[in-house]
């Protein structure tokens, strides 16, 4: 396999209140991560869709039921105005009245569209769904869902969906609110995950937890870390300890505290990308960095070398 030329865009949106919202565009597919939409983020989402030549969202991906990831009014507006063809929603049972109402809204959206003759796919990302997916044991441009492999009762954060977006020039890892040390250890053992993450969305908005540990960062080695957290938030996210670990490992950090974060592939859209931290409500730049994608290194190797990386002991085709 060789590198492909794919125009790729990522954006982290400043919301103006607690929560996070991201979009990822690659190979013609526009994905919105989290069902959040505010007066501050709406114009920028519309701008991003227009920039990608889209009038609607292809996929709405929700990592967890907490209100900072899925709010009732925001979800209703996103479904009504942006009409996603697919909704990936949390596979664990909603634990609050707000979360239960959000699930009802999603299922009602599917039914309403079906009655109108429009096919909408709504998927509960749960262990059975993940087990039924094709194994991603090769180096390719195919997204991977890693978690939830199991559901836990005591902490819904650790039932969050973990997904690696690989369709584009650069790869984006979304961790939701996952904090558990065992889940972090599992991800560190996953060959593709630890070799291909370019953009890491910090777990739980940059909380001090095992999935934001120095060990995790050292193993995964993202080109850049992104934190969806608002200015002067009550938890001081991203935590100073997390910032310090990233600094010590020379991993740049950009946040939505002062403005959106925009990441774009650069010509020839096969191995280079640029990350820009914007100043709120403007196109002015506060920081800009250039990178080379990690998977371009692996894709430059010959086929047998790749097979041995991902399938140790493979001796080549006969």
Structural summary, described in words:
- By secondary structure, the chain is α/β, with parallel strands linked by helices.
- It has a single domain (8-310), classed as Ribonuclease Z/Hydroxyacylglutathione hydrolase-like (Metallo-beta-lactamase, Chain A, 4-Layer Sandwich), CATH 3.60.15.10.
- 28% of the residues lie in helices and 22% in strands.
- The protein is built from 10 helices and 15 strands.
- A 9-stranded mixed β-sheet has the order 6-5-4-3-2-1-13-14-15.
- A hairpin with a 2-residue loop joins strand 2 (22-26) and strand 3 (29-33).
- Helix 2 (72-82) runs parallel beside helix 3 (97-115).
- The longest helix has 19 residues, at 97-115.
- It is globular and about 50 Å long.
- 44% of the residues are buried.
- Mean pLDDT is 90; it is low at 314-318.
SSE arrangement:
Elements: E1 8-12, E2 22-26, E3 29-33, H1 42-51, E4 59-61, H2 72-82, E5 86-90, H3 97-115, E6 121-125, H4 127-131, E7 144-147, E8 162-165, E9 172-174, H5 181-189, H6 191-196, E10 199-201, H7 214-220, E11 224-227, H8 240-248, E12 253-255, E13 261-266, E14 272-278, E15 285-292, H9 295-299, H10 303-310
Parallel strand pairs: 3-4, 4-5, 5-6, 9-10, 10-11, 11-12
Antiparallel strand pairs: 1-2, 1-13, 2-3, 7-8, 8-9, 13-14, 14-15
Helix pairs in contact: 2-3
Task: State the gist of this model.
The chain is an alpha/beta fold. It contains ten helices and 15 strands.
């Amino acid at each position: 396999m060789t590198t492909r030329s794919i125009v790729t865009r990522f954006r982290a949106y400043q919301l103006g209140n607690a929560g996070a919202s991201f979009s990822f565009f690659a190979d013609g597919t526009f994905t919105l991560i989290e069902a959040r939409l505010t007066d501050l983020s709406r114009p920028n989402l519309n701008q991003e869709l227009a920039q990608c030549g889209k009038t609607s969202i292809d996929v709405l991906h929700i990592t967890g039921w907490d209100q900072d990831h899925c709010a009732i009014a925001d979800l209703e507006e996103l479904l009504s105005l942006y009409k996603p063809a697919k909704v990936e929603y949390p596979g664990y049972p909603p634990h609050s009245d707000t979360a239960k109402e959000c699930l009802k809204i999603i299922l009602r959206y599917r039914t309403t569209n079906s009655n109108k003759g429009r096919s909408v796919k709504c998927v509960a990302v749960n262990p059975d769904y993940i087990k039924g997916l094709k194994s991603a044991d090769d180096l390719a441009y195919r997204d991977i869902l890693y978690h939830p492999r199991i559901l836990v009762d005591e902490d819904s954060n650790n039932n969050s969906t973990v997904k690696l977006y690989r369709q584009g020039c650069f790869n984006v890892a979304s961790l939701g609110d996952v904090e558990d040390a065992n889940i972090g250890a599992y991800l560190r053992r996953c060959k593709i995950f630890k070799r291909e993450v370019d953009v890491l969305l910090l777990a739980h908005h940059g909380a001090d937890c095992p999935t934001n540990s120095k060990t995790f960062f050292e193993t995964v080695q993202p080109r850049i870390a992104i934190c969806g957290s608002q200015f002067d938030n009550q938890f001081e996210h991203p935590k100073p300890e997390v910032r310090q670990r990233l600094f010590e490992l020379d991993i740049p950090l950009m946040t939505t505290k002062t403005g959106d974060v925009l990441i774009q592939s650069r010509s020839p859209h096969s191995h280079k990308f640029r990350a820009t931290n914007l100043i709120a409500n403007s196109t002015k730049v506060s920081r800009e960095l250039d990178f080379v994608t990690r998977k371009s290194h692996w894709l430059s190797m010959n086929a047998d070398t790749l097979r041995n990386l991902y399938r140790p002991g493979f001796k080549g085709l006969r």
